[in-house]
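Thread: Newbie trying to understand structure tokens

Hi all, I'm a second-year student working on a class project, and my supervisor (Dr. K.) asked me to get a predicted structure for one chain before our next meeting. I've only ever worked with sequences, so writing a 3D structure as a token string is new to me. If someone could post the tokens and maybe explain what I'm looking at, I'd be very grateful. Here's the chain:
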Amino acid sequence: MVRRLAVCGTVLGALSLALPGAAAAGGFATVGLSSLPDGTAPGAAWNVRLTILQHGRTPLDELRPVIRLRREGGGATREVVAVPAGPPGVYRARVVFPSAGRWRYEVRDGFSLTHQFAPVRIGGPGPAAAPAPDPPARRGDVGAALAAALAAGVAAAALTAAAAARRRPAPTPAAAPR
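---
Reply by user tm_fold:
Sure, no problem. This is what the structure looks like when written as tokens:
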């Protein structure tokens, strides 16, 4: 009985570690931009290429990435669909900011995430903005799932060991040698 309980506990612990990893498999993509729009004149085109890679390595084809523009302080919002540019995982878009000011832009990669970038100034002087990293909460999803699975596995192993120790019969005295 004790052995069966230990085997069940081991199997449950292994499953608790494996299932969250399988559920999160294939879960994210990275987006690289060929240029930044900072300083683009209002009404002028920002011609940009997006490189979308699964796990930052494998080019992703057959996606419909969308660039969304939002003027800071409210007002205009625009969306531009990027189209395949030829090489696998590369898409192009012709983006036009309708007016001067500070704009936020983000890319829905068409696979799993929306990637947010630092605000830019359109039609005026201003320091060049580097792309902001993806929000940590989104990047941490896989890590959080793995951490939770590890904690569940450790808890399952501890419970199994405690139950097995409680059910172990008292040791019988060994017979003295004759």
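A couple of things are worth pointing out once you decode it. The helical segments are 2-24, 136-167. The chain has two helices and ten strands. Feel free to ask follow-ups in this thread.
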